Amino acid sequence: MAMSNVKERFKVTLGDEVIVKPCRDTTRNVLELSGIDRISPAIFCTLFFYRASKSESTVEEHREKLQESLEKVLVSWYSAAGRLRLNGASGKLEIDCNGEGVTMRAATTDAKLEDLGNLHEHNDFCNKLVHQISDNEDLSQSPLVAVQ
């Protein structure tokens, strides 16, 4: 199936966005970004695809399990639940490890993995599967990680 047909034929349905916080209190500190961190792309998207399980679990049950797992992993990966901020004295970006959380939203589609074609190349349809950040969004108020 041609990619243009996939984009037109399949629809992505987005669930409500929720903030997921660590399930326990975490270390509160500030991490200065390294020189490499400061010159790297600000937004990096990774897509993971999983085949549908044969279980009778609903999308909501999968979402709940993912949310619980994310709450647990954010205890160890506490910096991901923080926010970027500009250090007034040095003028450098840093991460305020404040435990404010990450965003999570379920997305479903009736597209089949094989319908998406070569996933090693740019694929406009996949953009629908990735959390979109507005150009006007204040990054100091935005989560560092978004899961969809």
UniProtKB/TrEMBL annotation:
GO terms for molecular function: acyltransferase activity. It comes from the Eukaryota. InterPro entries: CAT-like_dom_sf, Plant_acyltransferase. The lineage of its organism: Eukaryota, Viridiplantae, Streptophyta, Embryophyta, Tracheophyta. It comes from Nymphaea colorata. The keyword Lipid biosynthesis does not apply. This is Uncharacterized protein. Keywords: Acyltransferase, Transferase. The keyword Transferase applies. Belongs to the plant acyltransferase family.
